[in-house]
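Researcher: Sequence recovery benchmark, item below. Answer with residues only.
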């Protein structure tokens, strides 16, 4: 991501330099600066082409990593909650005596059983995971439906990248409900896809983590001590204000790439 952001920043500075040169030589270059410095403008076009080719790959990488960290966070925090409250594991599911005897203590067995249950959940969709959290933990995973829909699309895009090499199928069209999509076309992941997914994931985690840590006495990391933290950009504080640089501009201008979200927010998760 830093490579993509740096390439974008270099291109922007090069374009700014060419614009300044164009103004400075406008009086002696009646045909425009491009006629006076053709080599530099050709170089600019090559740089633009390079940045354009890098952007989709960078967006795919960022979005995929973001979704995987979000799902890993859910797995870890559900496990922590179930270990803290073993009674929540009660179900009709059967385990063998051999599986029980493999563990040295009831605590080890509880942790194993919780991780096994979470592993089963990981193969289900976000809605089913949210329903499990609501029913078993008594908490709502998300509060804002808009954020939830953005995150669900991000997960759908990630699955398309990982399992279909970004080739659009009927399932993806159904999940996104975007009529402009055509089956068989390649979906080009954009920086907007990545940033929307990252911001919604971090906001959902920021709000949910406060509730789950309070209810189950799970230790949180102090986000303000982290190098990536910026007041008001994500988490319970909400999105950036208009006076602050947006996450989108930070990524595209190479100021501060969006961190791997939301795994870095939590301690031990």
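Model:
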């Amino acid at each position: 991501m830093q490579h993509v952001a740096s390439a974008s920043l270099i291109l922007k500075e090069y374009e700014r330099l060419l614009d300044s040169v164009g103004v400075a030589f406008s009086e002696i270059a009646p045909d425009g600066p491009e006629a006076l410095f053709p080599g530099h403008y050709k170089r600019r076009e090559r740089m633009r082409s390079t940045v354009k080719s890098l952007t989709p790959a960078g967006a795919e990488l960022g979005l995929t990593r973001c979704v995987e960290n979000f799902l890993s966070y859910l797995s870890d925090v559900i496990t922590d909650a179930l270990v803290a409250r073993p009674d929540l594991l009660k179900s009709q599911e059967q385990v063998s005596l051999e599986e029980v005897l493999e563990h040295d203590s009831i605590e080890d067995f509880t942790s194993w059983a919780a991780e096994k249950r979470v592993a089963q959940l990981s193969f289900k969709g976000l809605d089913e995971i949210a329903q499990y959290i609501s029913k078993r933990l008594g908490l709502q995973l998300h509060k804002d439906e808009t954020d939830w829909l953005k995150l669900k699309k991000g997960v759908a895009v990630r699955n398309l990248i990982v399992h279909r090499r970004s080739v659009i199928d009927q399932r993806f069209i159904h999940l996104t409900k975007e009529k402009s999509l055509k089956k068989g076309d390649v979906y080009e992941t954009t920086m907007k896809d990545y940033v929307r997914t990252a911001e919604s994931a971090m906001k959902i985690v920021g709000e949910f983590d406060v509730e789950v840590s309070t209810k189950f006495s799970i230790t949180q990391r102090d986000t303000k001590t982290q190098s990536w933290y910026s007041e008001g950009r994500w988490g319970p504080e909400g999105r950036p204000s208009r006076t602050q640089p947006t996450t989108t501009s930070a990524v595209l201008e190479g100021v501060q790439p969006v961190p791997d979200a939301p795994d870095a927010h939590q301690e031990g998760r």
